[in-house]
User: Fold this.
Amino acid sequence: MMDYAVVIDGLSKKFGAFAAVDGISLKVEYGEIFGFLGANGAGKTTAIRMLCGLLQPTSGTGTVNGFDINREYEKIKPSIGYMSQKFSLYGDLTGRENLQFYGTVYGLRGGRLKGRIAELVDGLSLDEFIDRPTGALPVGWRQRIALAAAILHRPRIVFLDEPTGGVDPVFRRRFWEILYRLADDGTNLFVTTHYMDEAEFCSRISIMHRGKIVVVGRPRELVASRGLRNLQETFISLISEQGTDG
Amino acid sequence: MGNVRFIILKEIRHILRDPRSLFIAILMPIMMTFLYGYAINLDIKNIRLAVLDYDQTSASRELVGRFYHSGYFAASLAPADMADPEAVLKRGDAHAVMIIRGGFAEALRGAAPYQLGLLLDGADANMSAAAASYSNVIIQRYLGESPGVGAAGRGVALSQRVLYNPDLKSSHFLVPGLIAIILMMISALLTSVTIAREKETGTMEQLLTAPVGPFQVILGKVIPYVGLALLDGVLVLSVGVLHFGVPLIGSSLLLLFFGLIYIIAALSLGVLISTLARTQQVAMMAALVATVLPSVMLSGFIFEIRNMPALLRFITMLVPARYFLLIMRGVMLKGSGLAVLWPQAAALVALTTLLLVAAVKRFRIRIG
Assistant:
């Protein structure tokens, strides 16, 4: 089991009678950029929140970095990074203050913390705006600081929930270049998105629809198996097979 | 627990980065004390008093003069007459009529039984109750101070003695209550809003994916506000003592100690509210309603708990301000210590523990 970054089996989350996530199973190997696709409301965010230890699953089992998501979520936390859909750093603090705070929470101190922040400021080209309150920055810049906060403690897996939502194409392109470099350095990425061009950057993807995983595979193979031209068309055809209201 | 320190530092940074809110948190309690100290003035003044003086001696004129010079009574413009002394009350021209029948001066010197008549307009219960107590005090002092009043003459007066607040100044009575209300409001408001803000902006979620427990988060966020609330408490108390002249007879240290316990109760209530509220606005409204109303209405601040129906009396037992109010009044006005105040102290500690445990439990469930 230790060979897999993420393993989930029959994972469900119900809110009352509504099953936001309905018995999904998945294995993600280390070294993959895994794309977690689906329309809005398909259950992607709920699934990620269970993997990060923010939500208790209703049923099903799973491991993240080898730790049980039902019992060992406190052990999962130091080993992962999480970047949520919504910008969730402190807007009244500067980027550097945010990074310092999260660094200390993850146990980095003094010179090590300073060095790591300098490394990230350099690597993600944050120097222009790192000392300004994050609340006043454009979305694309904020997302880069949020990414820096998520990878500050060098987690083995980083979960990114719609990291490029609301960002213009140029920023999105640069953001993905950074993600690629991270992956090259051995960080495992688990990304949700609904941009199909981004999905094509992933080594493998899964498509979720109404709480269930419809299909898992390499983007090119999925497109080829359907005999369509691109991922966009493949996605639409797969979803429309599932039900009219997809 | 090492992470708590960093959350505290971060929270202090938030507080300092927002000087407007800090200013409000410090200035509002002081302004409220001044405002309420003057506005909720239970000292009833200018009670219109009509006098029917049939004695017409220097003694009776002296008594009447004392009433009018007390500052509490003013002359009624309409004259009253013996045939129908109630008429001025009925018309609303006076709140009270004092009737001094003939023989007052002799009664002061001799032993003959004598009764001073005082008619009060019961329609305004507060006014008449105040008038009755003021009259007693004025007559008492008159009898005590007038030369030539025999021992027998003193038997004329009603024997009522006002304890602890001989001047019947309501500020002495009100300021301790105000401190209880303001501390409760500020503490619950600030904590519920600061936690709701982290929930609303999504930073709480980010924080909880990091290796920090819910308890550390609460502790780290609440501790800076304990300090701020204590500062507010000391400021309000200073205004009460220095400006309104409220006595502080008992131990300040005891007051501070119970103030701290009371603040913890209020902060726990704030955390509880924040687990129910999703936005800062809802948290703010809920905190105001959940703290101000019970602390004003059900603490004994304005309405006597003894006179409430059984159900309300039971509910008052869950209002922390009820106990803190008695502790404050006891320590400040009477100089009481734990020997006297232990039942209230025990109840406050128990209630605080209950709220704290509930807050931590609820917070954990929300995140789970």
